[in-house]
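[09:14] KT: can someone run the structure on this one? pasting the chain below
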Amino acid sequence: MKTGLVLGKFAPLHKGHQLLIERARSENDRVIVIIYDSPQVTSTPLPLRAHWIKALYPDVKVKEAWDGPSEVGDTPEIKKMHEDYLIGFLGGQKIAAFYSSEFYGEHVSKARCPRLPYRFQQELLLYRRLRSDRTHMPTGSISIR
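[09:31] RB: done, structure tokens below
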């Protein structure tokens, strides 16, 4: 059974997020969506954002990441913080593909990253970056907020 992973704040949920989720659903047997709390970015409560996704995609496993890292950046320290959090949060769940349009997607999914434990290297085998230039779906949460 192949499992796809979509990660984000979904603040607010928009058509670009839906494109990621729908692509993951079409290419996998199971999809997990992890939603970061991110109170510094949005005042929309995490349970409400999770409800939006559950209502549209009842077959998707939505996981609320209340204690997820809030730091964003491309430094080795921030990358490691996110790696460690996701490894723990997924609890050994095997992931076949990671879907993102964000800069961190490639890093999260790199199977060759030497700092990742072996079990995580084997999980994130496919990275599906969907049009980071947003020409296919010209929407981003920052422009909405």
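[09:33] KT: thanks! The longest strand covers residues 30-36.
[09:34] RB: yep, looked fine to me
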